[in-house]
Amino acid sequence: MNIRDAVASRFSCRAFLPTPVPESTIRDILELSARAPSGSNLQPWFVHALAGERLAVLKKRIEPRYGDLPRGDGAGYEVFPGKLHEPYRTRRFDVGLQLYESLGIPYEDRDARLKQYARNLVFFDAPVALFFVIERSLNPAQWADLGMFVQTVMLAAREHGLHTCAQQAWVPWSKSVEDFLKLPPEQMLFCGMALGHADESASENRWRSPRAPLETWADFSGF
Ligand SMILES: Cc1cc2nc3c(=O)[nH]c(=O)nc-3n(C[C@H](O)[C@H](O)[C@H](O)COP(=O)(O)O)c2cc1C
Looking at ligand 1, which residue's alpha carbon is closest to its atom 4? Predict the structure, then answer.
C-alpha cells in the first residue's frame, strides 16, 4: 500500500470483526512506527498492547461502572478547553451528529447517544487495544511527538489491512487504566486505540468525516 492510499483509507473505525490479530503483526506495526520523528530523538512514547483474556478483564472492570460514572473515575488531563470556541465547537458538534445520524440515533435521544459513546469502553469490539503513555514531566512539544507516533501506528496498520480508532474516551478513566497497566507514577495515559479488522457492513463505518477547505487554513506565497 502506498502512502496516499494509507492516508486516504484511514478513518476512525467504530465497529470491528472478532478476527484476531497476531502479536507478531502488532510488533511489526509498533517497530515500524517507532521510525516516527521526535524532537531531539526523545522517542517519548510507551505503548501497552492488550488482547485476549487480559483485554477481557479490563473491559469487565470498566464497562459495568460506566452507568454510575459517565464522567469516568479520574481524568488524567483535560482533553478540550472548558469552553471550546469556534470553529472547533461546530466541527466537534457536526462530527458527532454525523456519527449518530449514521446509526439512526436522533440527537435528542441522549440515552442512545450515551450508549453508543460507551462502545468506546469495549473498544468497539476490536480484538486489540493499545494504550499510549507519556511521562508527565514532558512538554507540549513531546505530546506532539507522541501524536506523530500515534498517527504512524494508524497508517502502518493500514499496510496490514487493519483499521483503528484513536480513543481519548479513555482519558476520563485514566486512573483505572493506569492502575490496571501498573504504570509508574511518573507516567500517564495519553489515549487508547482500538485496532482490528473493520466491519465494513456496519453503518457507523460507512460515512466519512468532513474537512475544512485548504484555503481556510493554508497560506501560500512565493511559488
Ligand atoms: C487523539 C484522538 C482521540 C480520539 N478519541 C476518540 C474517541 O474517544 N472516540 C471516538 O469515537 N473517536 C475518537 N477520535 C476520532 C476522531 O473523532 C476522528 O479522528 C475525527 O472525527 C476525524 O475523523 P476520521 O478519523 O474518521 O477521519 C479520536 C481521534 C484522535 C486523533
Answer: 167
